[in-house]
Inverse folding.
């Protein structure tokens, strides 16, 4: 299922927190029972009591978002800035004209409509909104509270049927913090401690409801090789506890999905034959064995069948060179559309990856040699892969700290990655890898107006984002921290 536009996933949803009421609570209860009763009869109490148990002070403050308006939007002209289209060279003193949520014109000689809202970007930079190629945004709220974490299904090493859209929380405070540094889009992915983790989604960070922010789903099926799955299930004395076991269980799951697909295709073919008129029989008469018995439905196998048919890429998390080679071997065996993730030792097989045209989602760039599987991690990894001709994107693989994406890219530049390649790695390249380059990733006429206006190089920590637009609407850059600072100043 690919989502474009606004399917009615959350139709009629009530989002106004101010209309929640409270009911009287039983006064005779004390202690923990009293606390739970308070929570159950006051909806706000659920969050307050739960977070008090962890010693946290977390008031759900929402900032007003001027982007959420039902009024018809006037055109917007961002004038005088240094524009970085990414798909072409920078343009000094250019204008970007936005109309109806899309980029209408980019250039130096642009006629600005009289009714347009003007934003003077003189002395500033205008760039596409940044894309983080792997996060758990909306799936993970408070690090130390398991009840707020939904990114990882821990019950089974093979969970291809898991879909992040079924857990995405669009009111996450992490979204507001993340977009403050210019990130407009993120791949929201399941955890990586299972062998087959589930299906990811590409979403914008406007803070609107799921049906509005969803750009594409599913984007990829996520697989994991290396330490996480074998550590988790080895501790349970369960397959997989070794790298051999990991590869064997993935291969076994894909073979089961292939058999399921063959049975389903055979059924469909026999059903068509049954519906056809057979030679030598009276018109409309069916064979005695028709209709055939349909195969039993299997949600897991249906999900993996999409991967085998090439409808959904297989995104393999692999750090060490041997794990990268195992992913390539499995992809070759089952004809998978392979995307590599993490790849701390990708530079060791850069030429192979380039020859096979396998894209790599690197990172975090700050990955340290602090585990056996990352002993070969080097900061020059991105530069070496880029030099070999590998298409790269950069991820944070974080949630609370996804805002570090610009500085991850900046670190790659400091260690040899050309600046324009780094910009592409957090804009157009991930859009190409995820199959949405016709809609976002660069500043071109007809594409979504997802862009930022900054005081300078977005990869420098002191640079400020002055304006953020998503779908042509200016998005507030205020966060919960700003609201609390104003409250207690």
């Amino acid at each position: 299922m690919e989502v474009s536009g606004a399917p009615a996933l959350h139709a009629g949803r009530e989002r106004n927190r101010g209309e929640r009421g409270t009911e009287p609570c039983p006064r005779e209860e004390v202690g923990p029972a009293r606390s739970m009763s308070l929570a159950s009869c006051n909806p706000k109490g659920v969050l307050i009591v739960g977070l008090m148990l962890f010693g946290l002070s977390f008031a759900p403050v929402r900032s007003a978002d001027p982007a959420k308006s039902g009024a018809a939007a006037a055109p917007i002209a961002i004038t005088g800035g240094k524009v970085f289209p990414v798909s072409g060279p920078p343009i000094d003193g250019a204008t970007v004209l936005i109309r109806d949520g899309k980029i209408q014109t980019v250039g130096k000689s642009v006629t600005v409509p009289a009714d347009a809202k003007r934003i003077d970007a003189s002395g500033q930079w205008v760039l596409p909104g940044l894309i983080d190629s792997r996060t758990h945004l909306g799936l993970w709220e408070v690090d130390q509270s398991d009840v707020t974490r939904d990114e990882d299904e821990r019950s089974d090493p093979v969970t291809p049927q898991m879909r992040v859209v079924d857990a995405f929380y669009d009111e996450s405070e992490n979204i507001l913090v993340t977009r403050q540094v210019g990130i407009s889009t993120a791949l929201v992915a399941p955890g990586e401690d299972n062998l087959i983790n589930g299906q990811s989604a590409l979403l914008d960070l406007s803070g609107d409801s799921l049906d509005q922010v969803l750009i594409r789903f599913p984007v990829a099926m996520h697989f994991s090789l290396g330490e996480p799955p074998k550590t988790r299930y080895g501790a349970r004395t369960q397959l997989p506890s070794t790298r051999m076991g990991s590869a064997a269980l993935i291969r076994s799951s894909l073979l089961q999905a292939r058999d399921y697909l063959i049975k389903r295709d055979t059924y469909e073919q026999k059903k068509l034959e049954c519906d056809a008129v057979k030679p030598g029989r009276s018109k409309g008469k069916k064979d005695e064995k028709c209709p055939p018995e349909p195969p039993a439905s299997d949600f897991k196998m249906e999900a993996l069948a999409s991967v085998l048919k090439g409808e959904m890429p297989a995104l393999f998390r692999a750090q060490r060179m041997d794990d990268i080679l195992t992913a390539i071997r499995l992809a070759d065996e089952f004809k998978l559309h392979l995307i590599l993730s993490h790849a701390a030792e990708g530079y060791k097989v850069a030429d192979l990856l380039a020859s096979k045209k396998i894209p790599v989602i690197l990172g975090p760039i700050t990955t340290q040699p602090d585990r056996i599987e990352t002993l070969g991690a080097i900061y020059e990894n991105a530069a070496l892969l880029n030099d070999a001709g590998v298409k790269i994107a950069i991820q944070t693989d974080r949630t609370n700290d996804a805002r570090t994406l610009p500085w991850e890219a900046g670190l790659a530049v400091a260690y040899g990655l050309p600046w324009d390649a780094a910009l592409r790695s957090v804009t157009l390249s991930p859009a190409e890898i995820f199959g949405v380059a016709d809609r976002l990733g660069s500043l071109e006429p007809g594409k979504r107006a997802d862009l930022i206006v900054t005081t300078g190089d977005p990869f420098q920590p002191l640079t400020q984002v002055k304006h953020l637009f998503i779908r042509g609407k200016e998005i507030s850059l205020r966060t919960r921290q700003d609201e609390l600072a104003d409250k207690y100043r």
Remarks:
- The chain is about 30% helix and 20% strand.
- The first strand starts at residue 76 and ends at 83.
- Residues 243-275 form the longest helix (33 residues).
- Confidence is low (pLDDT under 50) at residues 4-69.
